[in-house]
Write a structure and sequence with these properties.
Layout lengths: L7 H18 L2 H4 L9 H17 L24 H9 L6 H24 L5 H11 L3 H6 L5 H22 L2 H17 L5 H17 L4 H27 L17 H19 L2 H14 L8 H20 L15 H16 L4 H31 L12 H7 L8 E4 L6 H6 L3 E3 L17 E5 L5 H6 L2 E8 L2 E6 L3
Parallel strand pairs: 1-2, 1-3
Antiparallel strand pairs: 3-5, 4-5
Helix pairs in contact: 3-4, 5-6, 5-8, 6-16, 8-9, 9-11, 10-11, 10-14, 13-15, 13-16, 14-15
Length: 493
């Protein structure tokens, strides 16, 4: 394949054109302006609820919480809230929090793919570099969360940026690239602690190098040690903060395979193979990855063995991650995001070594095949995105979008506490209401738990309201009927 040499400015403009074209093809221009919906609606509104909490409690960085008052205060912590805090500060300007958070995700998508492109251009042609970049990011899961709210995608992008600088450092020994990798690793691991697998892998790699060369760079060891100390301190704070506030909603413990029954294990594996696997990547993409890795075994002399060692360390780490969080893989597709940087390293270490051994005709054929698979893979991601968003309205709570304006119009105080029935999510309806309160999912016997009696209002589905409930709790109907829900004032405490 003919290599095209272009200057930096042209390279940037060309990438912007390609990136925008891919986003338009994926219909991002429509999805960008949509509020939370689709798969994992619960986790999306949980993330946005952290932003609302900051806005309603005075922007104290370490005063972290959600809108649900199940623990009486709403105080709870999980991932490092820096992005949430920044978004909360910008909401003072009137920008919608979900739009700003999506923009940050989209910018990281842009920056990461551009960085990866420039890294690949060192050893590959421009066309091959573009094809590989968008092939790696063509996973439906990656494309969906690139325009979403959960911190896993931010951690993914920062980890890939860290690995790019780390691999460059191994080649050039440039201290600036190492410092950048440290910075990216730190924030990636703070935003999602499971991504700490990668800096741990880097440290183990350097320790193993000591046994070979009998010398070690202590600055590197100290740098990684600082990362792990900061990660430990933050996670210790989260555990302590949640404990003193009686908060147990967010997962802060492992769910290992040995704590699951045989039926549970079979169910998880079946779900991964028969459902999530089709969401991970286009099938031909998976086959192409596999073929490249298999062929690379015959070109082991051409492959960077340092990267092979590093990949082996990561494989062990990710295997442990899969075992320790085994149960989560059934219902949480975003747990797969941790594996994408690993597959990226394997592929970019194998593919250049293989294609550079071919003659010009073979190179053109393989490059053409790569481009075709990349386009088909992106198209497959586009189709799956449409499916995810088309099923979004299955969640009844998603219909409460824009209800905040209505309750403001009838004079409901921003400080009013509201109980929503039914809502199986922790923060979904409360996010749309932008009020503190409670949610009740079980409607088999609608009653108000004691903690809900602290509410000022009840927002309830009309089909669930009964005269006995109105009489018992002295409910007074307010002038609000919104898409099947009615608002009642609670006059008994």
């Amino acid at each position: 394949m003919i290599n095209i040499n272009i200057d930096k400015k042209t390279n940037f403009i060309l990438f912007c054109i390609v990136f925008i074209s891919v986003c338009l093809f994926l219909n991002y221009q429509t999805y960008f302006f949509l509020s939370p919906r689709g798969i994992h609606f619960i986790r999306q509104t949980d993330s946005l609820s952290f932003i609302n909490y900051y806005c309603k409690t005075g922007f104290n960085f370490f005063n972290i919480g959600n809108l649900n008052l199940y623990n009486s205060t709403g105080k709870t912590a999980c991932e490092f809230p820096l992005i949430y805090y920044i978004v909360a500060l910008f909401t003072k300007t009137g920008i919608k929090s979900f739009l700003l958070l999506k923009f940050i995700h989209l910018f990281l998508f842009f920056y990461t793919t551009f960085s990866l492109l420039n890294f690949l251009k060192r050893t590959l042609s421009l066309i091959n570099s573009y094809a590989i970049v968008f092939l790696i990011f063509s996973s439906t899961i990656s494309l969906f969360y690139a325009l979403n709210y959960i911190p896993n995608y931010i951690a993914l992008c920062l980890t890939i940026c860290a690995l790019i600088n780390f691999l460059s450092f191994l080649e050039s020994n440039n201290p600036f690239e190492f410092k950048l990798s440290i910075l990216f690793f730190l924030f990636a691991s703070l935003f999602k602690v499971t991504f700490a697998i990668y800096p741990i892998g880097c440290l183990i790699y350097f320790v193993l190098q000591f046994f070979k060369f009998k010398k070690i760079n202590y600055k590197i060891v100290v740098s990684f040690s600082i990362i792990f100390v900061l990660i430990f301190l933050w996670n210790y704070f989260v555990l302590y903060y949640n404990q003193i506030n009686n908060a147990d909603y967010y997962l802060t413990a492992i769910k290992p395979i040995w704590n699951s029954s045989f039926e549970e294990r079979r169910s998880v594996i079946s779900f991964i193979l028969n459902y999530w696997l089709y969401q991970y990547y286009f099938q031909s993409t998976i086959h192409f990855f596999g073929i490249v890795l298999f062929i690379s075994l015959f070109f082991y002399k051409k492959i960077n063995l340092k990267i092979v060692l590093f990949s082996l360390i990561l494989f062990i780490g990710l295997s442990c991650y899969f075992i320790l969080f085994f149960k989560q893989f059934k219902d949480h597709d975003y747990y797969f995001l941790e594996f994408i940087p690993f597959f990226m390293i394997l592929f970019i270490n194998s593919f250049p070594s293989i294609i550079n051994c071919f003659n010009s005709y073979c190179k053109i054929s393989v490059s053409l095949l790569l481009v075709i698979i990349s386009i088909l893979s992106i198209n497959y991601g586009r189709i799956n995105l449409e499916r995810r968003y088309s099923s979004a309205n299955e969640n009844k709570i998603a219909f409460l979008e824009n209800i905040e304006n209505r309750i403001d119009e009838i004079g409901i105080s921003p400080d009013a506490k509201i109980t929503v029935i039914p809502d199986y999510t922790m923060n979904g309806s409360l996010y749309y209401l932008n009020r503190f309160g409670y949610t009740i999912g079980d409607t088999s016997d609608v009653n108000l738990p004691k903690f809900c009696l602290k509410s000022d209002y009840i927002l309830i589905l009309d089909s669930l309201i009964k005269p006995s409930l109105i009489k018992k709790f002295k409910l007074k109907k307010c002038n609000l009927i919104f898409k099947g829900f009615s608002l009642y004032e609670l006059n008994i405490k």
